[in-house]
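agent: user wants the structure for Tyrosine decarboxylase from Linum usitatissimum. delegating to structure tool.
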Amino acid sequence: ELEMIVLDWLAKLLKLPKEFLSSGHGGGVIQGTASEAILVVLLAARDKMLRKFGKSALEKLVVYASDQTHSALQKACQIGGIYPENCRLLKTDSSANYSLTPELVREAVSQDISAGLIPFFLCGTVGTTSSATV
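agent: tool returned. relaying tokens verbatim.
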């Protein structure tokens, strides 16, 4: 109950629509760690796609992230049944401050769609351990 109250306070503070409140169709939960949070959101995205495309689509689901992203993403993919070869850690370098560029993501997604795969998750990375990249 305390969690619902605090998250409703936060939604109101951010002036989010009423749909985000626990009294509506919204609400939320507080995750204890970033690793927990990434697992929960990856599983939610995976399940949404499997409802849309069918359970046999699991082998076609593709995840994208910067090569600066914490290893928690790869662990979440493993727990979520995402094939290791479908976890794309896109190479970054100093020319873009170790950040993903829209062009890099667009190219990877386009190649996967052409190969019949289903892009479903792009991991945002804020403040990496190795480079403090956003």
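agent: one observation worth passing along. The first strand starts at residue 61 and ends at 66.
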